[in-house]
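job 3f2a | input accepted
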Amino acid sequence: MNIAVYGGSFDPPTLGHMMVVTHLLLNDETVDNIYIPPCFQQKGKMLTGFDHRMIMCQRQFSALPRTKILPIERELGGESLTVRLLQELVKREKDAKFRFVMGADLLESAPRWEGWDEIQKLAPPLIIGRAGISPRGPGDPTPISPVVSSTLVKKALAQGDYREAGRYLSVPVCQYIQQQKLYLAQT
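job 3f2a | predicted structure (187 res):
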């Protein structure tokens, strides 16, 4: 079983995230399933509650085949670290081969991540091209992920501008945000 692991804060999950998952499902024959584990805590960031982000991810990705939203980061607790997540997944699913999905915008900072060398061994990166990121060479991936700033989405939501925020959110996610009155106090 070949499993792509697409983690992130998903605060909130956007149409950009949906495009990445859809692209992998439709175009990457090396991917059998996609695991989507929202991070529990992120260093230096205040995140919307984990349960809300899990529900938004379920609403965002539930219609897509071969995807699974994992609460594993809550089980691990504390600050989320990619290396720790991958170590746990490899331990739980010994017969699976993992790939770590990451945007091309992260390539420059990735070597400074804790356990980067081990991450590459546990789950060789599957690089997703992102609009606005200059290619470094002829082998760089074609951009399939648009530039979507969660900061701008949250700013629009804080102002109650669901029309602007809705340009970047799926209908089920936008409805959940409205129902739960999420992001209204954030700037």
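job 3f2a | The longest helix spans residues 15-27.
job 3f2a | closed
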